[in-house]
Design a protein that fits this description.
The protein contains 12 helices and no strands. By secondary structure, the chain is mainly α. Helix 2 packs across helix 8 and helix 6 packs antiparallel against helix 12.
Length: about 300
């Protein structure tokens, strides 16, 4: 169990680090589109390296994986675009916690489109999540409507990517969940890399910009590998709960960066504001735990 928990925490740490690296890129170079292109090509190369080790020989015997693969990649790409646009205006520590708003989005998708039931405890978790988002809004400069819009669309796209990603994993051959998840991830990022590669030659390229995108690509991709190791060891339910600590980890990183005077990544916040962010992140984590456990009839 401890191996799974540590893997989940490392995944959360990797994601929190990637948020900071992405903010560094967009603040320095000002182009979320360039970051998407560079990062997808780099991660496509990483996916290609592990591809032979995670793909089952019978994977391509059936074409059932094509639809969920394309939709997973499409909504992930749209979500990344919204995320990188939002992070130009919101500190990584706040945005990391606000991604917990996927909860109400998933609840609405389950009820309206998938016709799945959401019980009373899960609706309570949704309300806790909304309260945490409002508290996060009061934990510093007010979040603009424009930034809030990008966050909401980002959560919608990420949620749809998760839904089709789950469908992709279910249709892939193999008895091991973690193995199928790794295969689905490798296929998704390889597809994104193939799509991004020709686009790379149509935009103005910079060695410094590619170098700045590299830490984001590595930290995100490695985080995904740790995440699937976490799922294999302790399951997806407990794994998602452990991974959701990324909001708190991001705030700890923000405190360290603020004290180091690195203001272009995280603006210095007063102790009162920082404690508000911590309280909001803990409330968001509580909502995620409650929603997940209630959905699994704990």
């Amino acid at each position: 169990m401890w191996v799974g928990i540590i893997s989940g925490l490392l995944a959360a740490f990797g994601q929190s680090s990637s948020y900071l690296f992405s903010r560094h890129f967009v603040v320095r170079f000002g182009s979320p589109i360039h970051l998407i292109i560079y990062a997808q090509v780099l991660m496509g190369g990483m996916a290609l390296l592990i591809f032979p080790w995670v793909i089952d020989r019978t994977t391509f015997a059936d074409t059932a994986f094509v639809r969920p693969l394309i939709l997973t990649a499409l909504f992930y790409l749209l979500g990344q675009g919204c995320f990188f646009t939002a992070i130009k205006e919101i500190e990584a520590s706040r945005l990391s916690s606000l991604l917990g708003l996927k909860l109400p989005v998933l609840a609405l998708i389950n009820v309206v489109f998938l016709h799945l039931g959401v019980n009373l405890w899960q609706w309570a978790a949704v309300l806790l999540c909304a309260a945490a988002a409002m508290m996060m809004n009061w934990s510093g400069g007010r979040i603009t409507w424009k930034a809030a819009w990008w966050v909401i669309v980002c959560c919608i796209c990420y949620s749809l990517s998760d839904i089709f990603g789950r469908e992709l994993i279910l249709v892939l051959p193999g008895h091991n969940l973690a193995g199928r998840a790794l295969a689905g991830t490798a296929m998704t990022y390889l597809l994104l890399g193939v799509i991004a590669l020709p686009v790379l030659f149509t935009v103005k390229r910079s060695v410094r910009a590619v170098a700045a995108a590299f830490p984001y690509a590595v930290s995100w991709f490695v985080a995904m590998l740790f995440l699937f190791g976490c799922f294999a060891a302790i399951g997806t339910v407990f794994g998602n709960i452990v991974q959701s600590t990324r909001g708190i980890i991001s705030i700890v990183m923000a405190v360290m960066l603020g004290r180091a005077g690195i203001s272009h990544l995280e603006q210095h916040a007063s102790r009162k504001m920082m404690w508000r962010r911590v309280a909001a992140a803990v409330l968001m984590l509580t909502a995620i735990v409650l929603y997940t456990l209630a959905g699994n009839k704990w």
